[in-house]
Amino acid sequence: MIFQHPQFLILLALPVILAFWEWVRRGHPMVLPFDHGRQRRGWFLRLLVLGANCLPALLLALAILFLAHPMTYTPPEVERQLNNVQFVLDTSGSMAEDHGPQTQGRHRRFDSAMEAIEQFTNYRQGDAFGLTIFSRNYIHWLPLTLDTQSIALSKRFIEPNNPKLDPPSMGRHGLPDELWGHTYIGKALLGATELLAQRPTGDRMIILMTDGESSDILPPKDIEIITRLQAEKITVFAILLSNEKIQPQLANIARSTGGEAFNAITGDALSMVFKRIDEMKKVVVLEKRPQVVDFYEPFFIPTLGVLAASVLVLFGLRFTPW
């Protein structure tokens, strides 16, 4: 415990002097007829009355402690550095194709991507996550938020169509291929970059998941994208959800920003990729210094108790004036 105004503590000498004077003073003794008898000294009652007379001095001491403003240090708070992670997810029709073994029913590339995203967000609690979907154009479906459940709830509204694989009886969902077809990775990366650039604090990261190639990252457009990403200090991780060779320009974009490009041909492989990303972008723990806060609490109850006792003894527990 410390005091904001320790110079006031010297005033504690006053209640000590008052209490000492109360115990040693004789007052104005008056001889009464029974003083020459053999009565007991009554030490217990005397000590009780002297203690009651010292209560005002104790109240003064407590008031001086309050005046000195007691304070204490709080335990150091452990805080992690915020990471801003924007998922850029391809939702073109090809993302509805099968991904990995189909032993437990239909499992699409889109399903694997959403499952991996959900696992990653649950594991990295404390980071801010956002979701951008893209194909011909892009939509920032979910802004950066600490509410990770929002991404999982969006699955039903963004899953892709594939008329070649899904019979008409399943009903159509997602955006029509006529408006949403093709894959433009460069446009989506620049859009996510503009969004992340608005975050003033924390690291910035893009995790791109796609299953195709893009014409809008071919030279010289890839240089423009890399320059923009590097200027905003954004790290890009690119994941290709197929066994095809990763487009060289996409791999170059990722590595130029400090990230990497991966192939993931199964859901298990995709989970391993996300573990690798977690290792490459570890959580940074910041330990904050302890803060100084008011420390009046230990004095409240004793002060109220002494005040109540002082009021009660005024009803008669005192030396008689004769």
UniProtKB/TrEMBL annotation:
Q: Read off the CDD domains from this record.
A: vWFA
Transmembrane stretches, start-end: 6-24, 44-68, 299-317
Query: Where does the source fall among the domains of life?
Result: Bacteria
Where is each VWFA domain found?
A: 84-277
Keyword Transmembrane helix listed? The answer is yes
UniProt xrefs under InterPro entries: VWF_A (IPR002035), vWFA_dom_sf (IPR036465)
Name the UniProt key words of this record, in alphabetical order.
Membrane, Transmembrane, Transmembrane helix
PROSITE patterns found in the cross-reference section? VWFA
**UniProt cross-references to SMART domains, sorted A to Z:** VWA (SM00327)
Gene3D superfamilies noted in UniProt: von Willebrand factor, type A domain
**What protein am I looking at?**
VWFA domain-containing protein
